[in-house]
Design a protein that fits this description.
Elements (H helix, E strand, L loop, with lengths): L1 H19 L5 H10 L1 E5 L13 E7 L1 E7 L5 E8 L3 E4 L6 E6 L3 E7 H8 L3 H27 L2 H16 L1 E3 L2 E5 L4 H8 L3 H13 L3 E4 L3 E4 L2 H8 L8
Antiparallel strand pairs: 1-7, 2-5, 2-7, 3-4, 3-6, 8-9, 9-11, 10-11
Helix pairs in contact: 1-2, 1-4, 2-3, 5-8, 6-7
């Protein structure tokens, strides 16, 4: 419907502007809006995905976790994503994937091949999308190092530093986080138990590295110390 297409085009404008560094051609936003399936997912709900094809999902508002499922009901949280992110969701293959909302979330879902064809004539947008994909690949590699070679304290520190880079707010050498995921989600993502994650948070509080308020609010008091503990060579400010 024309009104719905216009609303989706307006929702897409911040993404396309971020990808190409300038306001996008109105025709491109309109073309992508026609391709997009717009959905709103309640907290704890799953996005309606076509598992037969590769997809791109734009998170216009809210946050999600990408979950991979294997045989015997085994699941692994692959990544967390936040407003402004583009998520690549593979078609069913060796594993199946779901995209679950951590809070009320507004999504635009695109068939990957059609989206690629639509932006192929705009090199700036295509380059911006490629950079997003490369960033996601780098994060996956960082996580693989953590799961394979780091102990529990290093994994939790690495997680907090990564969240600081993505959703942190810097204030006078400290960084404030409001984490939408649960401690259990953090544990599942890092291959740890929830008890281990809670213990690591307690030890970091005792060391004076962070302060917490409730489940979600975390203030990193010594970001550089956390980064060093995580094995990071450099802290990138949010």
């Amino acid at each position: 419907m024309p009104g719905q297409t216009m609303n989706k085009a307006e929702t897409l404008e911040p993404l396309l502007t971020a990808l190409c560094g300038a306001p996008p051609p109105s025709q491109l936003a309109g073309h992508l809006a026609v391709l997009a399936q717009e959905v709103r997912v309640a907290r704890g709900g799953s996005a309606p995905l076509d598992h037969r094809r590769d997809l791109f999902v734009y998170i216009a508002q809210g946050s999600t976790k990408l979950v991979a499922s294997a045989s015997a009901g085994r699941e692994q949280i692959v990544a967390f994503h936040f407003a402004g992110d583009i998520v690549s969701v593979p078609a069913h293959s060796l594993h199946s994937y779901s995209l679950n909302a951590l809070e009320p979330t507004h999504l635009l879902i695109f068939p990957a091949s059609e989206m690629h064809a639509a932006i192929a004539g705009n090199p700036a947008v295509l380059a911006g999308l490629l950079q997003r994909v490369l960033t996601a690949l780098h994060r996956c590699r960082d996580k693989a190092v953590g799961l394979g070679r780091k102990n529990a304290g290093e994994r939790v520190a690495s997680f907090l530093v990564g969240m600081a880079e993505r959703i942190g707010h810097a204030e006078g050498g400290e960084i404030t986080l409001d984490l939408p995921m649960s401690r259990r989600d953090i544990a599942d993502s890092l291959g740890l138990t929830i008890e281990t994650v809670s213990r690591q948070f307690s030890e970091m509080r005792s060391a004076g590295w962070l302060r917490t308020q409730g489940r979600a609010h975390v203030r990193l008091l010594q970001p550089a110390t956390l980064a060093a503990h995580a094995g990071h060579v450099e802290l990138r400010s949010p």
